[in-house]
Structures are given as C-alpha cells and as structure tokens.
Amino acid sequence: MPFDVVTATVDAPLSEEQSESVELAELLLEAVEKVGDRRFDDARALLRQCDGRASPTGNPIQRLVFYYSGSLRHRVDRETGRIGAGDMWKAKEQSSNLFRVAMNPSVRLVEFQRRLPFFQVAQFAGIQTIVEHVEGARRIHVLDLAIRTGHQWTILMQALATRRRDRVEHLKITAVATMEKELIEQTGRRLVTFAQSMNLVCSFYVIMVRDLAELRQDQLQFDSGETVAVLADDVARTLTSPAERLDSVIKVIRRVQPCIMVVTEMEGSRNSPVFVNWFVESLFFASVLFDSMGECMGSEEAWRKFGEETLGGVSKMVMMGTISDKLGQGRAWMIRSMKVDIWRAFFRRFGMVEAQLSHSSMYQAELMAQSVPCWSPCSVWMDGKSLIVGWKGTPVKSVTAWKFS
C-alpha cells in the first residue's frame, strides 16, 4: 500500500504485515528528522534498524525503505565527510547515466512505462487534445520537446488517416533533443515509414541543442500556412531551475504561434527548499509509484526492479548532491515536480491561457485506464480545465493545454 496510507491508518486495525510496515515507515521518517537536526549518529542508528527490516524483494514499503534509507545514508556520509572525491566522481557519472535513462528514446524505458497506466493515459489524452486543435488543417507541424521513441505520434497519425474530408497534405514532426541524435533519427525513420503505411506524407526533423533552454527561433523551420502544435511531455520541470530557462523556451515557442501547447507533468509537490520536507514529499510520492509497480508488474519482477532501482538511484544522487545536467558540466539539474496549480501560475506569467480539455479527451483517458485489469486502481478526473491521472486517489500525472494570448 502507498506510504501515506500506511502512516495515515495507524489507529485502525492492522494486519501483522501492515503493523510492521507502519513501524518501518516511522523509523525512516524519524531518521530523516534526525538528519534535519544534524544528529547524524542517531540517524545512522535508526537507519541500521531500517536495514534489518527493509528488503529489495519485500512488500512495497519494505522495498521503498530499502532504497530510500540507502539514499539517506549517502546524505549522512556526505554531510559528515565520509564520501571521498572518487565516490563523488563516480556518483556524477551515475547521475549523468540516470538522466539519459529518463530522457533517452530508450526502448527499455518505453517498455517499462507501457506497463504503468499513468504514462499511457496521459499520452492518449494529450494527443487527443492536439487532434482536436488541428482539425481541418491540411498542413500540420508538431514540435516535440522530448520525443523519446515517438510512439505518441503514431496515435496522431492514425487519427489523421481516418479523416473523411480535409485530408492532410503534409505532416511535419520536429524533435528538439540534447543527446542521442542517431537514435532520434532512427525514431524519425520509423515514424515516416509508419505514416506511409497510413497513406500520409510525413517529414521528420531533428534540432540538436546543448541545452533545451538554448533553443533559438532561427533553428525552427516553419512554413507559412502550417498549423503548429507543441508537446512538452515530462520536460517542463527540468527547466524551472533557474526559472529563466523555462522563460527562454516559452519565448521561442510563442514566436511560432502554435494553436495549442500540451504539457504533461508528474503531479506532486516536491519543491521544498527544506531538506526534510523535500525528502518526505518525495518519499510519499515514490510510495505511490512503488505500489503501482507492485500491482502492475507483479509477475514481471525484472521490470519492477528496473523502475524501483531507477527511482532509488535518482534519490541517491540527490542525497549526494551530484544530480547535474545531462552535460555533466556542473550546473544544477533540479527535480522540481509541482502540482498543477503551481504550473498554472508559471504559465500565466508568460501570458498563456489555459484551454479546456474536452469530454473526448477525458473519455479517451478513461478508456485507456480501463483497458488493463491491473490498472483498475487508476482513475482520472478533471481539475478545473486540466486532467489528472491518479493511483488509488493520489494524483500522479497532469495534462494541461495552453494557448498564447
């Protein structure tokens, strides 16, 4: 069960396993408080108790505590000078690799995400929104800020191919990337081939930049008469530190005058400058993901382990203070996941107007959430004009749509 459920139900009758999970959760939370108070010896003693009860193969709470107690220990070692220069160098290499795992067009990552409902549900809702806003357009140009394997555009192509009137003359896809140009070009070739099978004319372009915030308007080749749509899938939160980076990207996008910009983000409040608060926020959110992985990948231990090790690795790098940008050149890569109302405030600062997600987008999301039996704890609901995808009532991912005033 998720971490917040465990800690919130301590007064209700619990099974023996649930009682042990509550005790283990409380040990880790107490250790975090000791670190916040700089009582490192006390924190180490509590973490040793966690070691005796946590396990990478146990229930979701045991697995979560296994990874996060290890991350917290690295934080203690860092604060007390027990991490040497060699360890820090190795950790920086690992942080760079983790960034690549998160952002690359990796088949392995997509196969992992395909087993969880949040990514699929949000993707279908987002693409449905784009489909509606390019309705009637004959020349369509989509700008993707994090294309990965590009599967999302096959959904768009299938929708465009079913048009009975206003047949599409040309579909262009421009991918902006910071690494792995060859892999993304392979993605482009696959998409063009798929489009041909749908009797669509499709062109694919790649723009390589050192950093997404350095994207320039003169790099974007848009023709007059094209209807432009933008997709930012799990990328905005990498641009908020400092805030000027997001500002720079939005200014470039505004100049190409898109009819819609769809933004999907992990839904959570992991933005506190206070370490203890940030750790607890991250821990509670990770518990939801661990719980979903346990239920959706119960018979596929290798995939569950891949996801949990990746989350645990990210936590470890943050604890050691080594999360850097993908270039490994010392600039901070901050993980600043925020709730949808905070994103609204961000985008409104840029003169953007939130667009209403349609009933059709909601319907597509609900259909996808119901398509796999083990996804039954996944639910979708509206938050104002936006769509939220959750697990057992906890928000996990948001989909918002924006126009430029």
TrEMBL record:
Span(s) of short sequence motif VHIID? 140-144
Instruction: Give the start-end ranges of region SAW.
Output: 321-403
Q: Where in the cell is it found?
A: Nucleus
Which top-rank group of organisms is this from?
Answer: Eukaryota
Q: Which UniProt keywords apply?
A: Nucleus, Transcription, Transcription regulation
Q: Which Pfam families match?
A: GRAS (PF03514)
Stretches for region Leucine repeat II (LRII): 186-218
Principal place of residence:
nucleus
GO CC terms, sorted: nucleus
Family, per entry: Belongs to the GRAS family.
Q: What name appears for this protein in its UniProt entry?
A: DELLA protein RGL2
Upper taxonomic classification of the species? Eukaryota, Viridiplantae, Streptophyta, Embryophyta, Tracheophyta
